[in-house]
Design brief:
23 helices, two-stranded antiparallel sheet, alpha+beta, homodimer, 453 residues, 2-methylcitrate dehydratase PrpD, 7% strand, 2 domains, 60s Ribosomal Protein L30, Chain: A
């Protein structure tokens, strides 16, 4: 089976018209969510450093950097703009999740920069984004768990294929050029999970977006590469799986839309996805029983072993540690009755009220059999009240998964919170949001980027 | 053992004064050879496409592109210049070889661009180059054969560490910054051997040089990364070895100089290194016996199985195929009594005299026990004359290996041939060569790059 070629044909033949309306709706929401995350993340240190260096180097002003740290407009060559934007988009770990890892961030910013460079419209942006997510997520099916388990950060190692697919669509490559672009992209796939917890984690989708656009521009200009890179011996699947893999699975069901199934898990809370079901349970309990922190004797939070594993900060001292602390996330949920970007500042994590409450939280492994997929998200919260009462709440599907999606209003609230976090004017948020809900009506993408830059 | 830290200290503490004169001499010759290869390679399609796109994107004019295809001066941000130059340096597969693969090309151009950006001098260039080659080659010791065998092109996957080391030295990072730079660099290590035989092969060291400089500039600006990326679980060695590996071997003998042992194998001929011992034997026979093509009944060339494996083009039709054809290389050696860049044009490969002679060549596996290292290079040539005579010539160490090095005059001849191939003026070659033989006397590296650009 010519698998690379099948993906190349898929990209070259993709049109806006082929995308069903339910998938377009998911994509519009995904664009809003991912762009919002980048606006918020643009003030984080990783994005500030990256945009400062990119501004120093400059170059052809083809694509817009979203909200660069130092305020002024910044346009750059497309691969450079895409890199900075993707770093910003992942800096807060607030962007969406699926079987690839974080699927949207490398793709959205490769698409946005390529479409702006090409003078494209809103349909081009949406189509490029959908194409990229479909390619990276379908390709991921070839791997068992061996890819991620070996130490690869699939957000970038798979994301580079998605970024290349999005850029290939944006620059309107034919199938033969797209196959070569995959060849060049595969030779740039990188990103070690060992760098989690550092700025190099958000650098990964930045590098993927950079590499995907670079691959596409080289291929379009005549650069050659192996046109069967995915399935060949010594090719991408063989080298990056490092264990059993099945290339045929990648091209099974090419007509199905992974954006619908398994879908995107949009993050409602700006912290590790593994805390989300527990936060849902806590917010539900706090509101239903009007429970005050002073009423609480103890909190037991049972999670799957897989979801417990990244929650390593039991007594966090910084905002960033707080994002990977089940104890702090639950304390904040009961104290504030909301979990938003402002929850994870150093000051908020260190406030005495939170320090007191988080001492009462005990994480534990639950005994619910974990099946494939979302059941790993199951959480059970048991709150003992000082008055002797006990409240148990179970959440199987946290808010934001494809099966339990956020409302459009919640997506909009998150977008506005992102702008507010970055101290961007409310009016810009409102205008950008209106444009993005009707992205297909945008005649030129630079009308949108002018608002965001 | 803190292995990443040991390498970071090595880089931060390296000075020109610490490098012994015999190593400096090897490095001066390596600089000349690698820069010559890039001047010649700059007219190849891969370099032409890369420099055209880089010129379109432009940016801060900090570092010089060597002989860009369209003739005019081109200065770019350092990582962009390094990428184009390294692609040019590897485009003809004429650059040097050691246990890493092609060790110099990613490092020389990361060093040259960084030192030019930093306003450094000739000693900075030589020191950065030596540091980079030492780091990548020492680090490679941790791997058994599993790294290359799995499908990685070590020229780039190891070269990115060498490029980062060279740039870290050029920008004078301290040890803590250098360790973080290795963390960022390791998350960009990529390059699949599957892309051999396409333009993406020379793209690999280009990407490595780009990534190494990018890592260093981010680390210098405060970007964070895992500071023990090499040796940690889920770290670089664990993920890229994909088989048994020994991190301790990487830091064994940190005081020894790999530039001396195993040394560099400088290519005397612009074709696959596996043809070199056979070409040496052919030139020796042709000259000693004044043997004409018309005198030859048959040629049997016995090589190790490992060296036979890449020589896949038995009836080549293009110059590029001719580089991987033992038959054509031997035919050309007997006909022309030299093997130079002009040997591998499409016209030369297709000339009738060569087509006739290469039909008389038979490649075969030899029965010499192959030990580790250079004995794999052993070749035996058996020529049967039409008059019934038989000549046998054996070559164990082809010209250009550390054990059988080229003379300074041969290095200079190759450099001049490279300039001539790219139709660059003889005078520029002579001036550049004089500067490079005395590279330590250069006060500013841009006096050299102005000649080469």
């Amino acid at each position: 089976m010519e698998i690379t070629r099948a993906f190349a044909n898929y990209v070259a033949e993709m049109t806006y018209e082929r995308i069903p309306e339910p998938v377009r709706k998911i994509a519009r929401r995904g664009l809003i969510d991912t762009i919002g995350c980048a606006v918020a993340g643009s003030i984080e240190p990783a994005a500030r450093i990256a945009s400062k260096l990119a501004r120093e180097d400059g170059g052809r002003p083809a694509a817009t950097v979203l909200a660069p740290a130092d305020g002024a407009d910044l346009k750059l060559p497309p691969q450079a703009a895409a890199m900075v934007n993707a770093i910003a988009g992942h800096a807060l770990d607030y962007d969406d999740v699926n079987t690839v890892g974080h699927p949207s961030v490398p793709v959205v910013f490769a698409a946005l920069a390529s479409v702006e460079d090409e003078g494209g419209d809103g349909r081009d942006l949406l189509t490029a984004y959908v194409t990229g997510v479909e390619v990276e997520t379908k390709a991921m099916r070839a791997f068992g768990e061996s890819h991620y388990l070996l130490g690869w950060h699939s957000t970038s190692t798979q994301g580079v294929l998605g970024a290349a697919a999005a850029a290939a669509r944006a620059y309107r490559l034919d199938a033969e050029e797209t196959a070569r672009a995959f060849g060049i992209a595969a030779s740039q796939a990188a990103g070690l999970r060992r760098n989690f917890g550092t700025m190099t984690k958000p650098f990964h989708p930045g590098h993927a977006a950079w590499s995907g656009i670079t691959a596409v521009r080289l291929a379009r200009a005549g650069f050659t590469a192996d046109p069967a890179i995915l399935e060949s011996p010594l090719g991408y699947f063989a080298v990056y799986a490092a264990g059993p893999y099945d290339p045929e699975k990648a091209v099974a069901n090419m007509e199905g839309w992974t954006l619908e199934r398994p879908g995107l898990s949009v993050k409602k809370y700006p912290c590790c996805y593994c805390t989300h079901a527990s936060i849902d349970a806590a917010l539900s309990i706090a509101k239903r029983f009007d429970l005050r922190p002073a009423d609480i004797a103890s909190i037991r939070a049972e999670l799957s072993p897989f979801f417990l594993s990244p929650l390593i900060h039991h007594r966090p001292k910084t905002g960033l540690e707080g994002k990977f602390s089940l104890e702090y996330a639950l304390a904040a949920a009961f104290i504030d009755r909301k979990v938003v970007l402002a929850t994870f500042t150093d000051e908020m994590v260190r406030r005495p009220e939170a320090r007191t409450l988080l001492e009462k939280v005990t994480p534990a492994k639950h005994d619910v059999a974990v099946e494939e997929g979302t059941r790993a998200t199951f959480a059970r919260l048991t709150v003992e009240r000082k008055d002797g009462g006990k409240i148990i709440e179970e959440v199987a599907e946290p808010r934001g998964t494809a099966a339990n999606p956020l409302s459009d209003e919640e997506i909009a609230d998150k977008f506005n919170d992102c702008f507010s976090f970055a101290r961007r004017p409310e009016k810009a948020a409102a205008q950008a949001l209106e444009m993005l809900w009707k992205v297909e009506q945008l005649q030129r993408i630079d009308r949108l980027t002018a608002l965001l830059g």
